[in-house]
Specification:
about 25% helix, C-N_Hydrolase, 8 helices, Nitrilase/N-carbamoyl-D-aminoacid amidohydrolase, alpha/beta, about 270 residues, binds ligand LYUYDEPV, globular, single chain, seven-stranded mixed sheet, six-stranded mixed sheet
């Protein structure tokens, strides 16, 4: 199965510009036999957090039809990153995914808000764990950026049979080594494909929280080998994945048969 990741710069506060850019990439860069496309976190408004009240979507009423029209026009499943999204007077960082026939397959809010990006001052945290959905007949889940740091968020859908975990991100440059290591760890400790789409660019100006984004979008197989990795500039990466490898990996190292939830404890 062929998958493409659109590693792009998200222009802060410029919803229409970002939409036009994504639309153009589907027209110009989508390969005919690609089955799933992945785009980054917060692709509508970026980290222009001060203006979320005016610029965030309202219950996906703008972003879902936009992505739905791309999915049906190009007949491709879309892991639609995430958007800032207002619901009942709160603003969330909401991930969603759409099938090639235009159905909304998945919608979840980011659970852990990033103190380093001031997200907790502007956004409300989601309370629902990432779950499994099917895209192109494959069980998968979708997790937003900083939630990668909390292995429990990935463990639930993989323990429920997800074979691919998609991570959508605007991961910062200063923590690039964490991004690369954590993605590999999540693939190995769960024996699944990890497909992670980050953004690039970012500037320090009055609209900006002062970060740049690392790129290095990656496709990692269930044995922890990097299948494809982007650099730190805009780039489309294309990868072939073989879901049978997940089955084989989980037979060779039967993590889920050996889980001991009865002895795992946490404290805070
Ligand atoms: N957008 C994010 O969640 C950023 C997370 C990040 O950069 C990190 O180091 O964690």
């Amino acid at each position: 199965m062929k998958i493409q990741l659109f590693q792009i710069e998200i222009i802060e506060g410029e919803v229409k510009v970002n939409e036009s850019r994504i639309k153009a990439l589907f027209e110009e860069k989508l390969e005919s036999d690609t089955e799933i496309v992945v785009i980054p976190e917060m692709w509508n408004n970026g980290y222009d957090l001060q203006h979320l009240a005016e610029k965030a979507d309202i219950d996906l009423t703008r972003s879902f039809p936009f992505i739905q029209s791309l999915a049906t026009k190009h007949h491709v499943g879309i892991i639609a990153g995430s958007v800032s999204n207002k619901r009942e007077n709160n603003i969330y960082n909401t991930a969603f995914a759409v099938s090639k026939t235009g159905e909304l397959l998945y919608q979840k809010d980011k659970i852990h808000l990033v103190p380093m990006l001031d997200e907790h001052h502007y956004l409300t945290a989601g309370n629902d764990v990432a779950e499994v959905f099917e895209i192109n007949d494959i069980k998968a889940s979708q997790i937003i950026c900083y939630d990668l740091r909390f292995p429990e968020i990935t463990r639930y859908p993989t323990s429920q049979g997800a074979k691919i975990i998609f991570y959508v991100a605007q991961w910062t440059t200063k923590n690039l080594n964490h991004w690369r290591s954590l993605l590999k760890a999540r693939a190995i400790e769960n024996g699944v494909y990890v497909i992670a789409c980050n953004s690039v660019g970012g500037v320090n100006n009055e609209n900006h929280v002062g970060n740049t984004y690392a790129g290095h979008s990656m496709v990692i197989d269930p044995n922890g080998n990097i299948v494809e990795e982007a650099g730190n500039q805009e780039e489309i990466i294309t990868a072939e994945i073989d879901i049978q490898k997940v089955v084989e990996q989980q037979q060779n190292i039967p993590i889920f048969k050996n889980l001991r939830p009865d002895v795992y404890k946490y404290s805070k």
